[in-house]
Amino acid sequence: xxxxxxxxxxxxxxxxxxxxxxxxxxxxxxxxxxxxxxxxxxxxxxxxxxxxxxxxxxxxxxxxxxxxxxxxxxxxxxxxxxxxxxxxxxxxxxxxxxxxxxxxxxxxxxxxxxxxxxxxxxxxxxxxxxxxxxxxxxxxxxxxxxxxxxxxxxxxxxxxxxxxxxxxxxxxxxxxxxxxxxxxxxxxxxxxxxxxxxxxxxxxxxxxxxxxxxxxxxxxxxxxxxxxxxxxxxxxxxxxxxxxxxxxxxxxxxxxxxxxxxxxxxxxxxxxxxxxxxxxxxxxxxxxxxxxxxxxxxxxxxxxxxxxxxxxxxxxxxxxxxxxxxxxxxxxxxxxxxxx
Length: 340
Prior knowledge:
The chain is an alpha+beta fold. Helix content is 40%, strand content 12%.
């Protein structure tokens, strides 16, 4: 099968690494990279301590020092930034033995990660490259360190596709991460509505990055104790489009960007940012909206029936088909709990 006939995967199996420790020249394998938990690899070309990436990596390194995650800076040979970060002990510095850092992330399913690899961040958990790359297409476009670090924490959430687990089951009270519960609900709903393969992977990726653009909203708006002004709401309403922009222009993320942009659109057209309605809204976005509402209701009102409000909102905020699919999943979980 030719490459043009294959659909790229957003979360893909990692086949091999070819890295060397800058300290002692030892080969560095995948097991070592993930020995203490998930790892972030910063793949850099010609990086100097003064460029736009340096501050972001220093902050990320400081955040990971006290966690189970590890930051590795991967460069092609000598790197002043790599040396500096290693010297202040915020990162491990690795090199690519071939002298070409574009090869340092190995192969994905017997294909190159990209035809023309650029700088980026890659999160790995020992089996997969997760979330693909945060690629800098222009100076200063790197994802904030706080956002990357928050994504590392999510790797501790049980994977609904792991062996022995039912992909169509909803998260239970043991799920500590609200966002992890949203993404688990999204996946279960997507599966119930007939999505599989790449489309299901794209949906999961959109769920993880749906609020990426909130990093551009000023803290004083996010933490404001009182009601927001119209001008402040206008800023908040830009975040879906900003989230899509931050995913970069790669065709690989085209469908993901469409989902992300529409995650706050309502079935009746009353949402934002474009006022899309009905089936003009991507199914993935409709699934995410219902899932977020469901998990929020379960979290804030644990003794109430979350489906009651969702049923009342079907046809207005929510796609009736998605609400019905969720209600069927909730009922199935309830029957299973009673049988158990």
